[in-house]
Protein backbone atom coordinates (compact mmCIF):
# COMPACT_ATOMS: atom_id res chain seq x y z
CA UNK A 1 0.00 0.00 0.00
CA UNK A 2 1.19 3.51 -0.71
CA UNK A 3 2.33 5.63 2.20
CA UNK A 4 1.40 9.15 3.16
CA UNK A 5 4.05 11.69 2.23
CA UNK A 6 5.92 13.26 5.12
CA UNK A 7 6.60 16.96 5.39
CA UNK A 8 9.96 16.82 7.18
CA UNK A 9 12.04 15.37 4.36
CA UNK A 10 15.69 16.49 4.59
CA UNK A 11 16.10 19.64 2.53
CA UNK A 12 18.94 18.25 0.45
CA UNK A 13 17.10 15.19 -0.89
CA UNK A 14 15.21 15.05 -4.16
CA UNK A 15 14.30 18.72 -4.38
CA UNK A 16 15.80 19.53 -7.78
CA UNK A 17 16.22 17.85 -11.12
CA UNK A 18 19.81 18.22 -12.36
CA UNK A 19 20.00 21.18 -14.76
CA UNK A 20 21.19 19.15 -17.73
CA UNK A 21 18.23 16.78 -17.42
CA UNK A 22 15.56 19.35 -18.18
CA UNK A 23 12.70 17.76 -20.16
CA UNK A 24 11.86 18.20 -23.81
CA UNK A 25 15.06 18.80 -25.81
CA UNK A 26 14.23 15.99 -28.25
CA UNK A 27 10.71 17.28 -28.87
CA UNK A 28 12.12 20.13 -30.96
CA UNK A 29 12.87 17.58 -33.68
CA UNK A 30 9.13 17.24 -34.33
CA UNK A 31 6.19 19.67 -34.31
CA UNK A 32 5.11 20.19 -30.70
CA UNK A 33 1.55 19.41 -29.66
CA UNK A 34 -0.47 20.78 -26.75
CA UNK A 35 -1.47 17.15 -26.14
CA UNK A 36 1.48 15.25 -24.69
CA UNK A 37 -0.06 11.80 -25.12
CA UNK A 38 -3.13 10.98 -27.20
CA UNK A 39 -4.67 7.52 -26.94
CA UNK A 40 -6.85 6.65 -29.90
CA UNK A 41 -9.12 3.60 -29.96
CA UNK A 42 -6.71 1.30 -28.14
CA UNK A 43 -7.91 -2.29 -28.04
CA UNK A 44 -6.15 -5.29 -26.53
CA UNK A 45 -7.56 -8.80 -26.64
CA UNK A 46 -5.97 -11.79 -24.89
CA UNK A 47 -7.73 -14.88 -26.21
CA UNK A 48 -11.39 -14.39 -25.26
CA UNK A 49 -10.62 -11.63 -22.76
CA UNK A 50 -10.92 -7.98 -23.83
CA UNK A 51 -8.51 -6.05 -21.61
CA UNK A 52 -8.98 -2.71 -23.36
CA UNK A 53 -12.13 -1.99 -25.35
CA UNK A 54 -11.41 1.02 -27.53
CA UNK A 55 -9.84 3.50 -25.12
CA UNK A 56 -9.60 7.20 -26.00
CA UNK A 57 -7.80 9.76 -23.84
CA UNK A 58 -5.96 13.07 -24.36
CA UNK A 59 -3.35 14.05 -21.79
CA UNK A 60 -2.39 17.76 -21.93
CA UNK A 61 1.27 18.73 -22.06
CA UNK A 62 2.50 19.98 -18.69
CA UNK A 63 -0.17 18.17 -16.69
CA UNK A 64 0.22 15.84 -13.71
CA UNK A 65 -2.23 13.17 -14.86
CA UNK A 66 -3.51 10.38 -12.61
CA UNK A 67 -4.93 7.12 -13.98
CA UNK A 68 -7.14 5.27 -11.49
CA UNK A 69 -9.26 2.15 -11.66
CA UNK A 70 -10.02 -1.16 -9.93
CA UNK A 71 -7.62 -4.09 -10.17
CA UNK A 72 -7.86 -5.58 -13.65
CA UNK A 73 -9.50 -2.48 -15.13
CA UNK A 74 -6.89 -2.17 -17.90
CA UNK A 75 -4.66 0.63 -16.57
CA UNK A 76 -1.33 -1.15 -17.01
CA UNK A 77 -2.36 -2.65 -20.35
CA UNK A 78 -3.35 0.77 -21.67
CA UNK A 79 -0.14 2.43 -20.50
CA UNK A 80 1.95 -0.44 -21.90
CA UNK A 81 0.37 -0.01 -25.33
CA UNK A 82 0.77 3.77 -25.13
CA UNK A 83 4.52 3.46 -24.51
CA UNK A 84 5.55 0.85 -27.12
CA UNK A 85 5.83 -1.91 -24.51
CA UNK A 86 2.83 -3.90 -25.76
CA UNK A 87 1.47 -4.16 -29.30
CA UNK A 88 -2.22 -3.19 -29.46
CA UNK A 89 -4.83 -5.34 -31.16
CA UNK A 90 -6.19 -2.12 -32.67
CA UNK A 91 -5.78 1.62 -32.25
CA UNK A 92 -2.68 3.69 -31.60
CA UNK A 93 -1.15 6.41 -29.45
CA UNK A 94 0.56 9.67 -30.33
CA UNK A 95 3.21 11.45 -28.28
CA UNK A 96 3.32 15.17 -29.08
CA UNK A 97 1.36 14.40 -32.23
CA UNK A 98 3.68 11.64 -33.48
CA UNK A 99 2.33 8.09 -33.89
CA UNK A 100 4.46 5.93 -31.60
CA UNK A 101 4.12 2.86 -33.81
CA UNK A 102 5.15 4.72 -36.96
CA UNK A 103 8.12 6.39 -35.26
CA UNK A 104 8.98 4.26 -32.24
CA UNK A 105 12.51 5.68 -32.06
CA UNK A 106 11.11 9.17 -31.47
CA UNK A 107 8.66 7.81 -28.90
CA UNK A 108 11.43 6.07 -26.97
CA UNK A 109 13.51 9.27 -26.94
CA UNK A 110 10.56 11.33 -25.77
CA UNK A 111 9.07 8.97 -23.17
CA UNK A 112 10.50 8.03 -19.80
CA UNK A 113 8.89 4.89 -18.41
CA UNK A 114 8.77 3.40 -14.92
CA UNK A 115 6.85 0.11 -15.28
CA UNK A 116 5.49 -1.79 -12.32
CA UNK A 117 6.68 -5.32 -11.61
CA UNK A 118 9.01 -5.60 -14.60
CA UNK A 119 12.24 -7.44 -13.85
CA UNK A 120 15.44 -5.47 -14.24
CA UNK A 121 19.16 -6.24 -14.25
CA UNK A 122 19.38 -6.49 -10.48
CA UNK A 123 22.90 -7.94 -10.49
CA UNK A 124 24.16 -4.57 -11.68
CA UNK A 125 24.85 -1.82 -9.21
CA UNK A 126 22.48 1.14 -9.18
CA UNK A 127 25.04 3.31 -10.95
CA UNK A 128 25.70 0.63 -13.56
CA UNK A 129 21.98 0.22 -14.25
CA UNK A 130 21.45 3.94 -14.90
CA UNK A 131 24.61 4.08 -17.01
CA UNK A 132 23.56 1.05 -19.05
CA UNK A 133 20.12 2.59 -19.65
CA UNK A 134 21.67 5.82 -20.89
CA UNK A 135 23.99 3.96 -23.25
CA UNK A 136 21.04 2.00 -24.65
CA UNK A 137 19.52 5.38 -25.57
CA UNK A 138 22.64 6.14 -27.62
CA UNK A 139 23.95 8.85 -25.31
CA UNK A 140 27.63 9.78 -25.16
CA UNK A 141 29.41 7.90 -22.34
CA UNK A 142 30.70 11.11 -20.74
CA UNK A 143 27.18 12.57 -20.64
CA UNK A 144 25.78 9.34 -19.19
CA UNK A 145 28.38 9.26 -16.41
CA UNK A 146 27.72 12.88 -15.49
CA UNK A 147 23.94 12.48 -15.46
CA UNK A 148 24.13 9.23 -13.50
CA UNK A 149 26.12 10.96 -10.77
CA UNK A 150 23.70 13.89 -10.70
CA UNK A 151 20.60 11.67 -10.56
CA UNK A 152 21.96 9.44 -7.80
CA UNK A 153 22.71 12.52 -5.72
CA UNK A 154 19.34 14.16 -6.41
CA UNK A 155 17.49 10.98 -5.42
CA UNK A 156 19.53 10.38 -2.28
CA UNK A 157 21.25 7.30 -3.72
CA UNK A 158 24.78 8.67 -4.02
CA UNK A 159 26.02 6.42 -1.20
CA UNK A 160 24.28 3.37 -2.72
CA UNK A 161 25.43 3.74 -6.32
CA UNK A 162 27.91 0.86 -5.98
CA UNK A 163 25.42 -1.43 -4.25
CA UNK A 164 23.71 -4.19 -6.24
CA UNK A 165 20.11 -3.40 -7.17
CA UNK A 166 19.09 -6.83 -5.85
CA UNK A 167 20.02 -5.58 -2.38
CA UNK A 168 17.96 -2.38 -2.67
CA UNK A 169 14.80 -1.80 -0.65
CA UNK A 170 11.51 -1.27 -2.49
CA UNK A 171 11.87 2.49 -2.16
CA UNK A 172 15.43 2.45 -3.46
CA UNK A 173 14.36 0.33 -6.44
CA UNK A 174 11.64 2.81 -7.35
CA UNK A 175 14.14 5.66 -7.15
CA UNK A 176 16.80 3.95 -9.25
CA UNK A 177 14.19 3.04 -11.88
CA UNK A 178 13.04 6.67 -11.88
CA UNK A 179 16.66 7.66 -12.52
CA UNK A 180 16.69 5.25 -15.48
CA UNK A 181 13.49 6.85 -16.79
CA UNK A 182 15.01 10.34 -16.52
CA UNK A 183 18.59 9.83 -17.69
CA UNK A 184 17.87 10.50 -21.38
CA UNK A 185 15.93 13.71 -20.57
CA UNK A 186 12.44 12.75 -21.79
CA UNK A 187 9.53 15.17 -22.06
CA UNK A 188 6.83 12.75 -20.84
CA UNK A 189 7.12 10.44 -17.81
CA UNK A 190 4.79 7.43 -17.58
CA UNK A 191 4.87 5.80 -14.16
CA UNK A 192 2.93 2.68 -13.17
CA UNK A 193 2.29 2.65 -9.40
CA UNK A 194 5.39 4.75 -8.55
CA UNK A 195 4.57 4.96 -4.83
CA UNK A 196 3.49 1.37 -4.19
CA UNK A 197 5.43 -0.30 -1.34
CA UNK A 198 7.54 2.84 -0.95
CA UNK A 199 8.45 4.29 2.45
CA UNK A 200 7.31 7.86 3.22
CA UNK A 201 10.75 9.46 2.83
CA UNK A 202 11.35 7.81 -0.56
CA UNK A 203 7.81 8.71 -1.65
CA UNK A 204 8.41 12.35 -0.77
CA UNK A 205 11.72 12.33 -2.62
CA UNK A 206 10.09 10.88 -5.74
CA UNK A 207 7.24 13.39 -5.58
CA UNK A 208 9.65 16.31 -5.23
CA UNK A 209 11.53 15.10 -8.30
CA UNK A 210 8.31 14.72 -10.31
CA UNK A 211 7.10 18.18 -9.34
CA UNK A 212 10.43 19.68 -10.36
CA UNK A 213 10.31 17.81 -13.68
CA UNK A 214 6.84 19.18 -14.34
CA UNK A 215 7.87 22.73 -13.35
CA UNK A 216 10.40 22.61 -16.20
CA UNK A 217 7.74 21.79 -18.77
CA UNK A 218 7.54 18.01 -18.44
CA UNK A 219 4.36 15.93 -18.34
CA UNK A 220 3.84 13.30 -15.63
CA UNK A 221 1.38 10.42 -16.06
CA UNK A 222 0.94 7.94 -13.23
CA UNK A 223 -1.37 5.11 -12.31
CA UNK A 224 -2.39 4.54 -8.71
CA UNK A 225 -4.91 2.71 -6.55
CA UNK A 226 -4.83 5.36 -3.84
CA UNK A 227 -7.42 8.08 -4.35
CA UNK A 228 -6.00 10.39 -1.67
CA UNK A 229 -2.61 10.44 -3.38
CA UNK A 230 -4.10 11.21 -6.79
CA UNK A 231 -6.40 13.91 -5.40
CA UNK A 232 -3.49 15.54 -3.60
CA UNK A 233 -0.89 15.65 -6.37
CA UNK A 234 -2.64 15.43 -9.75
CA UNK A 235 -4.08 18.24 -11.88
CA UNK A 236 -6.05 15.83 -14.09
CA UNK A 237 -7.44 12.32 -13.68
CA UNK A 238 -8.96 9.53 -15.74
CA UNK A 239 -11.05 6.70 -14.32
CA UNK A 240 -10.69 3.32 -16.05
CA UNK A 241 -13.20 0.49 -15.62
CA UNK A 242 -13.63 -2.77 -17.54
CA UNK A 243 -11.27 -1.69 -20.29
CA UNK A 244 -12.86 1.70 -20.92
CA UNK A 245 -12.26 5.31 -19.92
CA UNK A 246 -15.42 6.19 -17.98
CA UNK A 247 -14.40 9.71 -16.94
CA UNK A 248 -11.53 12.09 -17.66
CA UNK A 249 -10.61 15.74 -17.29
CA UNK A 250 -9.35 18.08 -14.63
CA UNK A 251 -9.58 16.82 -11.08
CA UNK A 252 -12.51 19.16 -10.38
CA UNK A 253 -14.35 18.04 -13.52
CA UNK A 254 -14.05 14.36 -12.66
CA UNK A 255 -14.92 14.85 -8.98
CA UNK A 256 -18.10 16.67 -10.05
CA UNK A 257 -18.70 18.18 -6.62
CA UNK A 258 -17.79 15.01 -4.70
CA UNK A 259 -14.51 13.78 -3.27
CA UNK A 260 -12.57 11.60 -5.70
CA UNK A 261 -13.17 8.35 -3.81
CA UNK A 262 -16.95 8.82 -3.74
CA UNK A 263 -16.99 9.75 -7.42
CA UNK A 264 -14.84 6.69 -8.17
CA UNK A 265 -17.27 4.41 -6.33
CA UNK A 266 -20.18 5.85 -8.28
CA UNK A 267 -18.44 5.45 -11.62
CA UNK A 268 -17.23 1.88 -11.21
CA UNK A 269 -20.07 0.57 -9.04
CA UNK A 270 -17.69 -0.48 -6.29
CA UNK A 271 -18.65 -1.37 -2.74
CA UNK A 272 -16.45 -0.37 0.18
CA UNK A 273 -18.52 -1.99 2.96
CA UNK A 274 -16.97 -4.96 4.67
CA UNK A 275 -20.24 -6.85 4.96
CA UNK A 276 -22.10 -7.98 8.06
CA UNK A 277 -19.77 -10.66 9.41
CA UNK A 278 -21.20 -11.06 12.89
CA UNK A 279 -18.81 -13.89 13.67
CA UNK A 280 -15.73 -11.76 12.90
CA UNK A 281 -14.81 -10.77 16.46
CA UNK A 282 -12.05 -11.71 18.91
CA UNK A 283 -12.71 -15.10 20.41
CA UNK A 284 -10.99 -17.58 22.62
CA UNK A 285 -12.17 -20.42 20.35
Automatic annotation (TrEMBL):
GO terms assigned for molecular function: ATP binding; ATP hydrolysis activity
One of the protein's GO biological processes: response to antibiotic
Record SMART domains: AAA
GO CC list: plasma membrane
Keyword set, alphabetical order: Antibiotic resistance, ATP-binding, Nucleotide-binding, Transport
InterPro entries with a match to the protein in the record: AAA+_ATPase (IPR003593), ABC_transporter-like_ATP-bd (IPR003439), ABC_transporter-like_CS (IPR017871), ABC_transporter_ATP-binding (IPR050763), P-loop_NTPase (IPR027417)
Taxonomic superkingdom: Bacteria
UniProt key word Nucleotide-binding: yes
Compartments in which it is found: Cell membrane
Keyword Nucleotide-binding: yes
PANTHER family the record matches: ABC TRANSPORTER ATP-BINDING PROTEIN, DOXORUBICIN RESISTANCE ATP-BINDING PROTEIN DRRA
Protein name (Swiss-Prot/TrEMBL): ABC transporter
Source species of the chain: Boudabousia marimammalium
Lineage: Bacteria, Bacillati, Actinomycetota, Actinomycetes, Actinomycetales
Amino acid sequence: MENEFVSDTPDNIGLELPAQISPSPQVQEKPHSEIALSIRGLVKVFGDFVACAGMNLDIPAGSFYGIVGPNGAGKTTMLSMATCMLTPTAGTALVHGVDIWKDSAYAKRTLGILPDGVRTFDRLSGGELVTYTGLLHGMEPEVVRSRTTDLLQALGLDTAGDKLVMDYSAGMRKKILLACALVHSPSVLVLDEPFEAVDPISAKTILNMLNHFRSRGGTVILSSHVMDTVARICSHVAVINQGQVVASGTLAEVEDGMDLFTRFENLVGARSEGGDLAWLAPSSN
